[in-house]
Amino acid sequence: MQPPSSPSHQWRVPPALPVVKLVGAVLLVALGLLLSDGDRVQAVLTIAVAAGLVGWALRDLLAPVRLAADPAGVTVIHGYAGRRHLPWAAVEAITVDRRSRLGLSTETLEIDAGESLHLFGRYDLGAPPDEVAGTLRSVRAAARR
What global pTM score does this model have? Predict the structure, then answer.
């Protein structure tokens, strides 16, 4: 447990998201098998895509916290479900990339650590990336004092 003088922040996948992915996988298999009409290729492809959705949902369940910050630095998800701690000295930039395409706008939080770039979307964080970036910048500024 951290002392009160060193607040910790963490951002996680919304709890409903893995449930939606698992339900989607079940519905996809049911619909695929119902409509495959004996076509083995279609059935195998449906099951493969559903397995991908299940793997994606399992990652959300195994490592729901995607990003954490405290006065020592940030902890980011690394690989499938691992974690990597980056001290503030290693973080070169915290930016939000905004893109518009086909009428849709997306924001991605980018944490540049020199040798690695860590990207987080709204559904990784459970919060808008610009709000998270502001919090990260304030934690880093407070850690420098």
Answer: 0.82
Tell how strand 73-78 and strand 104-112 pair up: unpaired
Q: Angle CA(16)–CA(20)–CA(23) in degrees, nearest 5?
A: 135
What pLDDT, in 10s, does the model give residues 52-88?
Answer: 999 999 999 999 999 999 999 999 999 999 999 999 9
- Contact present, 88 and 56 (Cβ < 8 Å): no
Instruction: Give the pairing of strands 65-70 and 73-78.
Output: antiparallel
Q: How far is 92 from 118, CA to CA, in rounded Å?
A: 12
Residue 99's alpha-carbon distances to 76, 93, 104, 145, in angstroms, are 23, 19, 8, 34
